[in-house]
Sequence to fold (238 residues):
Amino acid sequence: MFSRNKKRPVSQQPAQTPAKPQQNGQHLQSRPSTTSNPYYQHAHNNPPPPPPTARPYRHPPPGADMRLWQVFCNVDKDGSGAIDLRELQQALINSNWTTFDLDTIKMLMNIFDTDRSGTIGFNEFAGLYKYIEDWQGVFRHYDQDRSGTIEERELFDALNGFGYNLSPYIVRMILHKYSSTPVTGYGMPSPSITFDRFVRACVVVKDLTDSFRAADRDNDGWIQINYDQYMSMFLKSP
Ligand SMILES: [Ca+2]
Ligand SMILES: [Ca+2]
Fold:
């Protein structure tokens, strides 16, 4: 799920690569018409920064898993020693080559940025990596037709497998809410959920169920909560 830039599809390549610095002035002078272009002038006066390969050499923490350290360094593109939201989103790829959606990335940052620095350090990354790997196993288990996405029956089986006693109606609502494609309109494909949204859907179901159970003190399946409690229950979910 962490891309290593080996098989990145064309659509995942950066839209623009930095222009190479000019070797000498002759090439520029032979094409005077381009100097009237304000964008060209800007690029000429402000040469692009050096390529990211100029990052300083970094040492792993003592006892670090070297395979994991290598993945961490690949994700930490700017070599800052920590992974920010943008770096994490660029690294996490669904099986259909889309990057993880922003809400899922924010959810993962929220779970694993335990020191609340706003970034993921190496130790935090170890937890995040294992979490993703574990969820990959779950996803593969329930993606029974190996389509790379979770469809209605598979979602029903997954949520039941986790122990949530949800009606088919509620499972369909979850499917439509987290579907990676539009679910209304003529000729639309059947709704299905990519890995990133599947993880988020399951976390939301767990969070809401936990909130309900905490409020259902006599465990009779009914709760009495006020408006603030009701709103915060939903808004705390990713
Ligand atoms: Ca970084
Ligand atoms: Ca499937």
Notes: Residues 143, 145, 147, 149-151, 154 surround calcium ion (ligand 2) (CB under 6 Å).
